[in-house]
Write a structure and sequence with these properties.
The chain has helices spanning about 1-10, 55-70. The protein is mainly alpha-helical and about 80 residues long. The protein has one domain (about 15-70). About 10% of the residues are buried.
Length: about 80
């Protein structure tokens, strides 16, 4: 029975929220999606979202669009 459950079921859990966004020292990315401590690196995925209340696809696509806007408008000078 256990093997059947493991083989024939899937999780509906969405892996999100592993890269905290903010301006404090506990954050991984800033509000423009730049990763702290690494020049020219942005995070453009669901990891910057808090836990979702529904399917994250639309919001994750919006994060990617915003990241594109931020990186296209970025100068070559570090912050």
């Amino acid at each position: 029975m256990r093997e059947s459950v493991r083989t024939h079921t899937v999780s509906g859990y969405h892996q999100v929220g592993t890269s905290r966004m903010g301006v404090d020292t506990r954050s991984v990315v800033d509000p423009t999606l730049r990763v702290y401590g690494v020049e020219y690196l942005w995070s453009a995925d669901a990891s910057v979202r808090p836990l979702p209340t529904r399917n994250p696809t639309g919001r994750t696509m919006m994060i990617g669009k915003r990241a594109a806007d931020f990186t296209l408008g970025h100068s070559v000078h570090p912050r």
